[in-house]
Amino acid sequence: MISFDNTETAFKHKSNNELSKAWWLFKFIGNNKLVALSKPFAALAARIGPTRWLIQETIYAHFCGGTSIRTCEKTIAHLAEYNVGTILDYSVEGKESEADFDHTCDEIEATQNRALLDDNVPFCVFKLTGLARFALLEKVSSDAALSEAESNEFEHVRNRVERLCKKAFDDGTRIMMDAEESWIQPVMDELMLEMMQKYNGERAVVYNTFQMYRHDRLLKLKALIETAKTQNFNAGIKLVRGAYMEKERKRAAELQYSDPIQPNKQATDSDYNQAIDLITNNISCCAVCAGTHNEESSSFLVKQMAEKGIKANDERIFFSQLLGMSDHISFNLAAASYNVVKYVPYGPVKEVLPYLIRRAEENTSVAGQTSRELDLLTREKKRRQKDSAT
Ligand SMILES: Cc1cc2nc3c(=O)[nH]c(=O)nc-3n(C[C@H](O)[C@H](O)[C@H](O)COP(=O)(O)OP(=O)(O)OC[C@H]3O[C@@H](n4cnc5c(N)ncnc54)[C@H](O)[C@@H]3O)c2cc1C
């Protein structure tokens, strides 16, 4: 059975200097007050030479691959040395013009061209809000009638999605769509189902994301698998818990509709594991990428694979974590021959700032406890010190 306790394997890819840098970074972002104090100045700091340099050398260097696909090459090669793949995640957010959406689509296509070069980039990814106006997606999702201009605009959105999915099919690669807010998810589900029906006949090329913190998603997943069975295609599934919980709950309370989120964490965990069980039971028509930093879920998937006779390196099952987080899961799984792929965000420093702030906030300490990342880094530092002393 897999163990995630081996910090030597987890951090083999880091020199002593890199380990120390990571330790200091998590020590800093573990401090709630410092993170809260820095947040209002972050945007300004990212624009000024010396502070931009500081961000680039610390938090950015830890969580991002580079400013462009080319500058991510070092990270891609470094991860590949340890059998860990890369998902190039173009992390520029908050764009709203047609020109921006076309530009993002071109950029995703460039990641697809990179994926063609070797096996080190097994998936590409996009967010629908990178290719379309949020308000338009919300309107389509609500089934409201579109004006002629909006219908045309949506046709462009559909064409962008089609272009990326068709390219993944033609190239023999894979593409996944991230999940976002529940009130724009219906249009994403529709588009992804259409793409799976079209391109997932032989194998899973197109993957949709299922957020198990939503209490309705297990049923939705069951329905997708049933459709895949009857229509003879492969259901491509990225399985996550979900990242927008507070926002979801706040909106539901404000607009007085029923909360789409599970009543508690246990319910989310239970549905996540039930989804793993369901997918591995139906592996002949499913493929999954488990995007999680949860050790139990990762172990549960490993166990289900063993019990159901699915090989560790079966190409229908991938584990995925973010660059700079949960290396103890990624590198221990990869060392045991499981397929592992890291999300590697990239883009100019000031553009990826919202992403970096989210990572910092997620790693602040809870009730005075050391964050898990800091704890693992401390253990590895001590182990190396002991090793060099003997
Ligand atoms: C590779 C990768 C890709 C991702 N892609 C997406 C994506 O496309 N869309 C997206 O939304 N997120 C995405 N995420 C983020 C993910 O949804 C989680 O927010 C994050 O990974 C933390 O969950 P966890 O499974 O790692 O484990 P844990 O740390 O065990 O779980 C934390 C999660 O549990 C849920 N939770 C916590 N408290 C409660 C509660 N009281 N009631 C109900 N549920 C609760 C929340 O979803 C919370 O994020 C991705 C994560 C990874 C690693």
Task: Walk me through this protein's architecture.
The chain is built from 16 helices and eight strands. It is α/β, with parallel strands linked by helices. It has two domains: 1-64 and 359-390, no CATH class; 67-346, TIM Barrel (Alpha-Beta Barrel), CATH 3.20.20. The protein has an eight-stranded parallel barrel with strand order 1-2-3-4-5-6-7-8, surrounded by seven helices. Helix 10 packs parallel to helix 12 (265-281). The radius of gyration is 21 Å and the shape is globular.
Mean model confidence by pLDDT: 93
Shape: globular
Instruction: Indicate the CATH topology of the largest domain.
Output: TIM Barrel
**Strand order across the biggest sheet?**
1-2-3-4-5-6-7-8
Termini separation: 30 Å
> What bound compounds does this protein have?
flavin-adenine dinucleotide
CATH class of the largest domain: Alpha Beta
Helix content: 55-70%
The class by helix and strand makeup works out as alpha/beta
* Secondary-structure element pattern, one letter each: HHHHHEHEHHEHEHEHHEHEHEHH
Number of domains: 2
Query: What would you say the CATH architecture of the largest domain is?
Result: Alpha-Beta Barrel
Percent strand: 5-15%
| Total number of beta strands | 8
Low confidence ranges: none
**Discrete helix count:** 16
Largest sheet: 8 strands, parallel, barrel
Radius of gyration in whole Å, from Cα? 21 Å
